Amino acid sequence: MWSDVRRALYPGRFQPIHWGHVSVIRWALQQVDELIIAVGTAQESHTVVNPFTSGERVVMIKEALKEAGLELSRTYVIPVPDILMNSVWPYYVQMYVPKFQYGVARNPLVLRLFKDAGIKTLVPPPYDRMKYSSTRIRKLILAGSNEWRDLVPKSVASFIDEVGGAERLREIIGVD
Amino acid sequence: MWSDVRRALYPGRFQPIHWGHVSVIRWALQQVDELIIAVGTAQESHTVVNPFTSGERVVMIKEALKEAGLELSRTYVIPVPDILMNSVWPYYVQMYVPKFQYGVARNPLVLRLFKDAGIKTLVPPPYDRMKYSSTRIRKLILAGSNEWRDLVPKSVASFIDEVGGAERLREIIGVD
Amino acid sequence: MWSDVRRALYPGRFQPIHWGHVSVIRWALQQVDELIIAVGTAQESHTVVNPFTSGERVVMIKEALKEAGLELSRTYVIPVPDILMNSVWPYYVQMYVPKFQYGVARNPLVLRLFKDAGIKTLVPPPYDRMKYSSTRIRKLILAGSNEWRDLVPKSVASFIDEVGGAERLREIIGVD
Amino acid sequence: MWSDVRRALYPGRFQPIHWGHVSVIRWALQQVDELIIAVGTAQESHTVVNPFTSGERVVMIKEALKEAGLELSRTYVIPVPDILMNSVWPYYVQMYVPKFQYGVARNPLVLRLFKDAGIKTLVPPPYDRMKYSSTRIRKLILAGSNEWRDLVPKSVASFIDEVGGAERLREIIGVD
Amino acid sequence: MWSDVRRALYPGRFQPIHWGHVSVIRWALQQVDELIIAVGTAQESHTVVNPFTSGERVVMIKEALKEAGLELSRTYVIPVPDILMNSVWPYYVQMYVPKFQYGVARNPLVLRLFKDAGIKTLVPPPYDRMKYSSTRIRKLILAGSNEWRDLVPKSVASFIDEVGGAERLREIIGVD
Amino acid sequence: MWSDVRRALYPGRFQPIHWGHVSVIRWALQQVDELIIAVGTAQESHTVVNPFTSGERVVMIKEALKEAGLELSRTYVIPVPDILMNSVWPYYVQMYVPKFQYGVARNPLVLRLFKDAGIKTLVPPPYDRMKYSSTRIRKLILAGSNEWRDLVPKSVASFIDEVGGAERLREIIGVD
User: 35-94 in E: which are within 8 Å (CB) of D?
Assistant: First the structure.
């Protein structure tokens, strides 16, 4: 039966997706049958912390999964706009996605919210967050460095180039 | 290049998806490389006109596509909450989904909004709307008839049974 | 310990509170230690179905409880604005009110939402809904009849007179 | 001093403005120094009851005032989105517009809200509402009749033609 | 008559309530017949500045009042979600609470908004804000100090312990 | 025809309008037939960055234009509340204002959003932003300096005095 499938939710903003995220997704797909990747703050784009639209993030995630040789058919990639009521969030996100039994997170608050909502938690092994960090990637792009290209899948770097990501970031922080 | 892919948007509420919708999706996949199925009014569920959550609708759509032998890998299924500003809607939906060049619709207002937004339109051949209609299906379910089962893919009927769809519909219209 | 207190939630719009509501509250206070009365659609007033502000409804409820000889100290009366996402509502209301274990309702959908949220339900005995109905009371007030005065506590009738309830209702439906 | 100017607020949806509205504006400009025309439900367009955007309505109002020989320099035409909290509305609208001392209305609820907010009311003489009614005008346009052209200023009729108003109305009510 | 009762509004966020707040409430209950305690930013919880839900805050306030020997029957404790329109706020809050004639505040902006809305102001005597401050209490809890326990009623400290307040605060600021 | 008029949009918050803004408006009126001045963040007032209501800003802009000898009849001054979705903003603002073909801006992000929306851009010559800056003006007012009076039209300074702008700013940043 459909509801017998073991399914987990992995929430994030993915601005942009990097190899650290991909390692979590790979790990999660080993724990459960299907993984839902919830693309948070879906309503925001063209800001310093959320430069890409959720549509662009969906594309980058799918490209990254393909490049990493992960099974797209076992994943759902679903944009979820903010609700700004933390205690309600786990129930709100349930509305937007297929039924799931597990939450994937390392952030203590997200783990707490999952637990309070009766959702079992799956804590992935850590990755090097000093190196793999979307914030750092955005700063490197802005700085005109090419160092960020190693932190994300090639297809993601290409996509960022194709949509003029570096120029967009500079425009966002630009002054008149 | 990623942006060279010919992509179309097919918006609907899919409460629930039926063979009429599937025929439109099959037709659209013959016109373009990839199809985005936008699941509208994503924020609403457990009402007479929107009994199913957008998460449930995503599942039913994916199951229907599989059953119909359509290529899941060429589709995106993305929930989009309402914005309630019709003239802004085509731009708003662009934020949630991958870049697309075509809009799939027969509804005159949706076609107008697509055109005003500079989006080319693809008008699918009509299907028998007297027979294949989500409104009619919800009424048949409520009436306790089994006639609706022929109007939707088998997997969709199973899913509706599994989540207790008939009972939910009766509860929604139920009085104290 | 505070969390050992047995507490129930009774949601309604109370436009206005009548003897039927009071009988439910009396019954509920016999089942649990404390009762939370959630005044729904708190953000709306001066409309046909919601003529009174939530502040006015809080007052009428408190006056009704006092007149009925019920223990105010065992109740919480809390306005809750709409969220318009039915499946999320039980969790959303939990944010606004003290922790509770039971939901008081007869409406099938509300019972379903409580159950799906893991909240035990308490179904009060029915009262004569043909007679005791806020909709009917508003119609009687509008019709200039005095019949509604027997359907609500005296203090509630006085309050409605004091705020000019009949005039307000006529103004709401009034045409230019 | 600026705050000594006698100013009134005239709220409406103006879908579209007709000679009845113009007669109220003419009358109001005889009572006060300046008139603020608040274009309500500014966030809605392309619906049966609100076919025109607030931007289009601003234009039609200005054109109508010019055609009627009224002093544009004594008016403000300001779109105001809905707040959906009737009792708060008079204060909310004050935020969007210059300070005013008078409210222009015949609708009993609007008059009540103005009075409760301490705003003096100016009740314009009635016009023939059976004849001059935006609802009626929209129906006549839809019916393909030309009778509506006499009910609005010529410049308004031209504008409606120019933006394809009749076609838009048909599309809005159109079925697939 | 009900409207003859002298009633005041005391707004705050109460994250959590401390002896400073209690002293204001005691003082206010000496000035008026009834006091409405408006629990602001009611929609937010599980954040650094708003760790507790409004439901939890309602409970802590009631417990504090009981412990301080104040008359619960002369108070209303009512959660009010943010509106984010400062000039509209005094009118918006009036919708959620019983009619009041006085506003209790020391904050200059709140006093200004009350005055602009024609609400008389009651300015309570100052308390030691260096010592009694919700911000300071949250910091002390986070620092693992017990010093905060003297700043709040015993029942409030017990409640915070019971809901795991210290752990929640650590989780909120926690990093992955 | 009405749609042949060359029209531009100049967005800003105008907190308050200063001679730098006026120089842009003068320049823009030399480029196009009509100029729409969109008063952004219209829903906010009484905050440090947005002390004035949009209604007050509309008045200051009109007074400034009159004082500068600019043709009011060629301008529209229209408040637009925030939408908080940057990529959607250009389409959203189109709903509130008359049809326009040009966007007036120097800010790189605003120029980008205009371009992405197919709106031609008009980049005004720079003015001395170290000197003419609303942020600086608010700081000077707060500091009790009179230096700001030279940076705004006389009528704007008078208006700010008349509404007690300096006192308001002090109250906004005031502590209890």
Answer: 85, 87-88, 90-92, 94
Asked if A174 and A58 touch (Cβ cutoff 8 Å), the reply is: no
Element (H, E) at D122: strand D120-122
Chain B with chain C: Cβ pairs closer than 8 A: 34
Q: What is the ipTM, given to two decimal places?
A: 0.95
What are the backbone angles phi and psi of residue E161, rounded to the nearest 5°? Answer: -60, -45
Scan for tokens 């605060």, then name that residue: E169
Alpha-carbon distance of F171 to E36, in angstroms, equals 24
Would you say E58 and E40 are in contact if contact means Cβ atoms under 8 Å apart?
A: no
* Inter-chain residue contact A88 with C92, CB threshold 8 Å: yes
Q: Nearest to residue A79, comparing CAs of A50, A108, A40?
A: A40
Rounded Cα distance, A91 and A103, in Å:
12
Side by side, the strands of the sheet bearing A102-104 are A75-79, A34-39, A7-12, A102-104, A120-122
| Distance in angstroms (rounded) separating the CA atoms of residues C97 and C79 | 9
CA-based angle B127:B130:B136, to the nearest 5? 115
Residue E138's domain comprises: 2-173
DSSP label of D118: T
Closest CA–CA distance from residue E29 to any residue of chain A (Å): 33
Contact C113, C90 (CB under 8 A): yes
**Domain total in chain C:** 1
Contact between E88 and D95 (Cβ < 8 Å): yes
Contact flag D176-B112 (C-beta cutoff 8 Å): no
Tokens of D121: 């009311």
Query: Hey, what are A174's tokens?
Result: 């630009």
Q: Work out the number of other CB atoms within 10 angstroms of the CB of residue A152.
A: 25
What is the distance between the alpha carbons of residues E92 and D161, in angstroms, rounded to a whole number?
Answer: 41
Q: What is the pLDDT of residues C103-141, one digit of tens each?
A: 999 999 999 999 999 999 999 999 999 999 999 999 999
Residue F172 contacts E, CB cutoff 8 Å: yes
Which among F44, C64, F65 is positioned nearest to C56, based on CA atoms?
C64
CB A65 within 8 A of CB A25: yes
Whole-angstrom distance, CA of residue A11 vs CA of residue F18: 45
Q: Answer yes or no: are the C-beta atoms of B97 and B38 closer than 8 Å.
A: yes
Where do we find the tokens 């750092």? A136
Distance from CA of residue C145 to its chain's centroid? Answer: 23
Separation between Cα atoms, residue D99 and residue D102, nearest integer Å = 10
Q: Is B8 helix (H, G, I), strand (E, B) or coil?
A: strand
Alpha carbon distance A126, E176 (integer Å): 9
pLDDT in tens, C30-80: 999 999 999 999 999 999 999 999 999 999 999 999 999 999 999 999 999
Which residues is D131 bridged to in the sheet? none
Q: CATH code at F101? A: 3.40.50.620
* Contact between B92 and F88 (Cβ < 8 Å): yes
Radius of gyration of chain D (CA): 16
Separation of alpha carbons F62 and E35, rounded Å = 44
Structure pTM? 0.96
Which tokens sit at B65?
Answer: 């596509």
pLDDT digits (tens, 9 = 90+) for E22-44: 999 999 999 999 999 999 999 99
Q: Which residues of C150-162 are buried (b: 16+ CB within 10 A; e: fewer)?
A: ebbbebbbbbbee
Contact E85 D94 (CB under 8 A): no
DSSP, residue by residue, A63-109: HHHHHTT--GGGEEEEE----S-GGGHHHHHHHHS---SEEE---HH
Q: State the amino acid at position B169 in one-letter form.
A: L
